[in-house]
Request: fold
Amino acid sequence: MLLDLQVDRGRGDVIVIIPAHNEEAVIGDVIRELKRQHALDILVADDASTDATARYAQAAGATVLPLSAQLGAWGATQAGLRYAYREGYQVAVTMDGDGQHPAEAVPTLLDAFHHHNADLCIGSNPARGSKARRIAWRLLRLLSGLKVQDLTSGLRVYGRRAMAVAAERGATLLDFQDVGLLMLFKSAGLTITEIPVSMRPRANGKSRIFHSWLAVGYYMSHTAALCISKRNRVRVGPRISGAGET
Reply:
């Protein structure tokens, strides 16, 4: 159950959601950079951190959604999206708490989201991928039928319809932030657009998936099974456009 948090709703209908686990080294800087450049509500979904992430986030001006158990990056993001949907936000921007997503990318994504009348807009940077990441993306695009170039980017803009699908109980299974969630959107007939953005090296931590070949293999086995089981049951919706498509 979500806590009855109080957020300043005087700034509009857009909220930035940052899932964070033990990001005390950078979370304050991430939030202050956002607040300097944008007048947006900011929610940090604190994924049961054992350090001072929640305290530093609140001190920097964000609202903190404390999770009592560690849910992982997608579980924390989903909790934030459920909160945003419940509170009536029209648009939710998700970004990582490790400093790799620059604040200046947010208005670019929002402009593209509105220009394309999309349900979801992804900030894409395929060039950041390691060899393991590029191999995984290529295989997952083949298995899923998706045309999205950056399948694992956490820098996204969700509209109300996308928030509703992401908040469903079925979207909790496995790691739905990546391919699984995009397949759910495709099945629901939602429109996805993707635009290129610059990203920085992580200021803290490491990739949860691509830090080792063993981790890649574990992730690929689960996601490949998900793609194969769901692809034939996905109905055809509006065309999904990749970063290079118009």
Summary: The longest strand covers residues 14-20. Residues 213-231 form the longest helix (19 residues). The beta strands are 14-20, 41-46, 63-66, 91-94, 120-124, 156-159, 192-196.
